[in-house]
Predict the structure.
Amino acid sequence: MRKWIKSLTAVALAVSLIGGATSAASAASTLKGKIVINGSSALLPLTLQAASEFKKLNPKVKISASAAGSITGPQAVRKGIADIGAVDWDASQDVPGFKKFDGQVANPVAVTVFSAIVHKDVKVSSLTTKQLQDIFSGKITNWKDVGGDDEDIVVVNRKFGSGTRVNFQMKALSGTEFMSKGDNYKEVGSSGDMKTTIETTPNSIGYIDLPYVTSKMKALSINGVAPTEKNVLNGTYKVWGIGYFMTKGKPTGATKAFIEYIQSKTFQNGSLKKLKFIPLASVK
Amino acid sequence: MVMRKAVAASVAAAVVATSIVSAASAAPAAKTVAAVQAQQSTFTVNGNAVAFRVVTKNGETLVSVRDLAQAIGANIAVNNGALTVTLNGHTVEVKLNAKQLTADGAAVSLKQPIQLVNGSTYIALRPFIAGLGGTVALNAGQISVSTVQLLEGAENPRFVNASTLLVSTIQEEGRTDYLVDTATGKSEVLMTSTDKSDLVVAPNGQQAIFSDNEGLLYLINLSTKAVAKLSDDNNIKPELVWSPDSGTVYFLQGDKGSVIAKIDVTSGEITKILEDKVDYKSSLNVSADGTQFVYAVTTLGKVTADSTNVDEDNVDIDFSANQIQIFSFDSTVKDGKPTQLTKGTDDKIFITSADGKNAAYVSVPNENSNAVLVAAAADGTTKNLYGAHDVLESVQYAGKLYVLAANSDTENGIYEVTASGAANQLYAVSAEVSSIVVSESGIAVVRDGSILVKNGNSWTAVTK
């Protein structure tokens, strides 16, 4: 009987989280289960931070995380090997290059800001949408044509299937196509690889989500607007997207409780901001 | 204050005037009261000792309404022979000789009628204070009255010193941090923010450190509430840890917490300590001398994927690589490498270390087994320290381990566990206690969303 009451408390906790009003300081939980999360590398720091905090509140929930690009998230969910597919776009809808995943529910978790980045020695600090389109399509190949030194531009792109690529193509390049080959063209498989490549390749240009930007690279303004949270919130910087946790149907059990934790005001106003993501509520 | 005294005096006069009228209409009651003499008695009111006039009637102590109202700062108005006392949005109506009072419109019966003695009105303490939203408790033989409006829904208690807790409330847009008196629950706002990380209090209780959403570091003086920027370094800093002497803050750096670094809180100078390209470090612990480190590393599941044909779902995950392991690092060894302390595939949470060499953690083997407190020694051996009951949380303070464990479905225990694994239950608490905080300043718990502090023999709720 007592056990039953305890598990009821866990259910009540989960239910009250929906309203977002429950504090993290709720009664000890007896929630059990296993959650497998795969997908976006951009969302991974957020996922792991939330998992670490959630586990302290729910020690009996096992959370396994991995990342290999957004598209592998909803694919792993469809294949039945993951409970949550982390993806940088709403995979329940069609986007350029990808059809929607039928039967999956897109649970929004965070706002991600994407930034065009260059190697720190590149002299250019702002590009227009047109200049970006021409550089990433291979029409402009020398930095001197956009106000920089007389050096060949090295374009670093994410592989097909990357959510960062989908967002950058849709929002920074207004949907125009990328170049796909050439001596000064590289493709990388993750945000981490993009970061390393830009940091170590002179004259390179690429794009990455804001949390990955380091002092060893330069984040470009687009049409004169810097990629900052402030500029997203005031509506002037447009290259941002919502990250989603895709689930097969509506989430249940531990998966549901975890998604509700990451959506809770405690997490959205706490660690999420610390990791340079933007709370969902800010852009509604 | 002078103003309030003047009001109280005129109220007293009004009470006398009113009582003459009612005494006339209720002569028998007045007669029985005549023999009663007022005495002085001292209660604790919101943390301060206050002397009251009291009378004893049929074994029950009645307290002067005027003295009480003055002590708790309530307002008194006289309406048609009744006293209306208001405090914190609550209203209590008192009529002389009535065997009830009215609290927020509802009648509350009294064992003894409201009495008039030497021109002053006397009433039973507990129902009167309860009607005004306060509480009356017996602490160490002393009657303790509290009418402090406790913070609601506060979380994350941290001791500043023995008399002050730092707590936070989360709003839709941001967070408010409060300093809360551990004796009374009286709170004051320390800081309201929309883009600041949790405050980490220095061991000396003088200041706290936090970062903003750009990664910059700030210090807040906990006495003056003044905020000063400490560093313009804009790397993400997922964890901040104070040195015991409050002079240095150690932190993980980068969105993946790859680097261990430190900042001198006087000069703002940042020094990298470990940059080994190993991502997803967490649970940073530092030795007292700042040279030894214990931390966890999360490794991820390995994914093989081919997205050339999305519809084929050519994706596989090998989860054997997905582990949490504990490492130690000795920064005094030139070009030294971190040492792996654990190898098991169990989940490891609440990772602590006092000396930066040996670790303790709560091991969760699987969802159906009890969680156990485990020691991981510098030589790579592990030993179970406590597993008699399911461990809910473990904290470390001054080299000692404290465990919150589920004694039964209705009771949790707070244990002190020694390095040899001897466990001594310090307190039995409700099963609703979900978290404990232990410091030199005291012990606090979170119980069903309310924060309680151990004061002497009892737990005082300081938030609700």
About this structure: Residues 1-34 of chain B have pLDDT under 50 and may be disordered. The first strand of chain B starts at residue 39 and ends at 45. Residues 400 and 418 of chain B are 7 Å apart (CA to CA). DSSP finds four helices and 42 strands in chain B.
